[in-house]
Amino acid sequence: MRLSPGSQAVLEQDCVALAEIELCGELMIAASAADEERLSSARIDEVLRVEHMPSGFSAS
Length: 60
Hints:
Layout (H helix, E strand, L loop, with lengths): L4 H29 L7 H7 L13
């Protein structure tokens, strides 16, 4: 099946949206399982699998 350029863009947006929904779900699960009232920034980064870059490096 061949997709038009517009259809390809919609599929890519759908993939991004699904990934965002999955990450939100993981945050909700972590928050509901936490003993504390709020998740720490470090715990949020852990759930979202954020890797911190050493100082002096840029994300671009």
